[in-house]
């Protein structure tokens, strides 16, 4: 991940900070970007300290979204982390129009199936989940993970 990451105040919106790294190549890069964004706010959201478990949830969601974009979406085309009053807003864009799906833990023969658990994790931990088609092709998934 580049050291040219920036944190900026959004004009006209108090207590909203954006952390704009380059697109992560690996889920580990996305996890570090979330940690840096929260640390850049001195661990505070809305003047209250962030719960360590909540930060871990945001890191996990970032990891799951980027893993899905890499494995199933043709790669990450944009990644944004914004720390705001409600928590961390994560946006991950990829090249695919296919929506994420949750797979049953077992196949039709009752055998355990690898994977398929990331999307349910994202939906359970996020306060808000939105998906949008992109004009240039692909989709963007934006979630808000509460930090308090």
TrEMBL record:
Classification via InterPro entries: Anti-sigma-factor_SerPK, HATPase_C_sf, HATPase_dom
Lineage: superkingdom: Bacteria
Segments forming domain Histidine kinase/HSP90-like ATPase: 47-143
UniProt GO molecular function: ATP binding
Presence of the UniProt keyword Glycoprotein in the record: no
Pfam families in UniProt: HATPase_c_2 (PF13581)
Keywords from the UniProt entry: ATP-binding, Kinase, Nucleotide-binding, Serine/threonine-protein kinase, Transferase
Record-linked PANTHER family: ANTI-SIGMA-F FACTOR RSBW, ANTI-SIGMA-F FACTOR RSBW-RELATED
Record protein name field: ATP-binding protein
Annotated source species: Streptomyces olivaceus
């Amino acid at each position: 991940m580049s050291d040219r990451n920036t944190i900026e105040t959004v004009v006209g919106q108090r207590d909203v900070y954006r952390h704009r790294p380059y697109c992560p190549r690996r889920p580990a890069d996305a996890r570090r970007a979330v940690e840096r964004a929260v640390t850049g706010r001195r661990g505070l959201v809305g003047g209250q300290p962030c719960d360590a478990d909540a930060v871990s949830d945001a890191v996990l969601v970032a990891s799951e979204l980027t893993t899905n974009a890499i494995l199933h979406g043709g790669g990450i085309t944009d990644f944004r982390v914004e720390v705001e009053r409600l928590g961390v807003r994560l946006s991950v864009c990829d090249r695919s129009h296919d929506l994420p799906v949750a797979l049953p833990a077992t196949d039709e023969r009752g055998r355990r199936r690898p994977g398929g658990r990331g999307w349910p994790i994202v939906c359970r931990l996020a306060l808000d989940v939105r998906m949008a088609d992109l004009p240039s092709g692909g989709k963007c998934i934006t979630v808000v993970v509460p930090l308090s």
